[in-house]
Design brief:
The protein is mainly beta. It has helices spanning 2-19, 21-29, and strands spanning 54-58, 74-78, 84-88, 104-108, 116-122, 127-132, 137-141, 144-147, 154-158, 164-167, 190-199, 202-212, 217-223, 225-230, 233-238, 241-245, 251-253, 260-261, 269-276, 279-286, 298-301, 307-313, 316-322, 334-336, 346-348, 351-353, 358-361, 372-374, 382-389, 392-399, 404-409. It has 2 helices and 31 strands. A hairpin with a 2-residue loop joins strand 19 (269-276) and strand 20 (279-286).
Amino acid sequence: MKSAKHLKTVLALCLTFLLAPHAVQAEQQQSTTISNDVPTEREIQVPPGLTEPFFVPFMRSSQDWDDYRKPFPSFALVSPAGKVIGTQEYTYWPGYISPLKNGYGFFKTGNMFKFSEYIIYDKQGNIQKTAAYDHSFTQMDGEWFLYQPEAGLSYFYNARTKATKLLTGDEKWWSIPDQYTGKVAYDIHHYPFVKNHVVNGALISYKMGLKDMNGNVTCQPFFDEYMGYSEGLHRVKINGMTHFITHEGKVVLKPSRNYKVESNFHSGVFIVSGKKDQDEFYLLMDKKGAFVSKKYAFIRETSDGQFLAVSKTKDGYFFQKINAMDKATTSLPYKLDRPEELKQLSQTGKLFHTDTHIVTDIANKQPFPFPHKLLTPPRNETVVMEYTLAGMKRMGAFSHEGRQIYSRPVK
């Protein structure tokens, strides 16, 4: 009986070593556990070829948290050379880590009911600090940011020139939508503004228009909601219906109410969805309002101008990359094992992933064969996750090939 138990133990250990050779080898190289909270540079082994700053997770070991109020992990920003250049710390909920966009990204620090500090960083790892309240900071267009450090005031900030522009009067934005998701993309040269209709001090109604960076009105207020910008057109809503307009306010396209617009223009087309017999489907539509793809179970745009298109078959859900003409650009379909995460499917760098799991890499192989949970969305070159190896829960950062950069046990 004991021999059988020993045999099972040996087989389990052998399987672990076979499945995760890179991670196991890295774990063997760590002879001692580092007790400091913030990761040290000697813990971080940056593989050759990384060109972007990345984050590594860590926990504050000195604080005693209740089981129902455990903190999210903190993160340290690390340069491509392996130098720790900043940290992000928070209490009961995760702060925000923005990916690089046209050379700039940002992350949020701060505590509950106190000022949050938004730290902008560039591709070289240089940082700039901007103080603001919670929920009041967003990246507009690469080097441009919008923030509200005080109630009722809004500013544009240029990270390249470090110039600040105060928005006054009807330019003021009372809220910044989708700051944590990045779903709303803006053209900084033609930004929306609000014109309020006030009677006896009470707000009766409002309309939105467009201005350029010199404050000139290019589009008089006539739409109700701003949904984003791409490829020369702004997506807006009028009476609940989507319209695509120019900088001057000319309506170029008004899709049918039978379809829901799911994206801005992307490589000359955009995504719409519809329903038939309770089954939801997705298609691509061009600027003339014509369909240019077959129906899919889901479509999501990628950063390289293409799309992830999911098909439902009798064997399950599979996805491929397609272009704007509905031509497959990957040679093999990829299996989606968790159909409940269908609408989270995305691509970052070499990885196809959902919000919480890595599906596969672009070679249709699984570079992380041990159970894992993503702690942040993957970056172009690295991924941060919580995982279990040989029965021990750990947090770490890896390259897209599955090579370990950093790891610590979860206490």
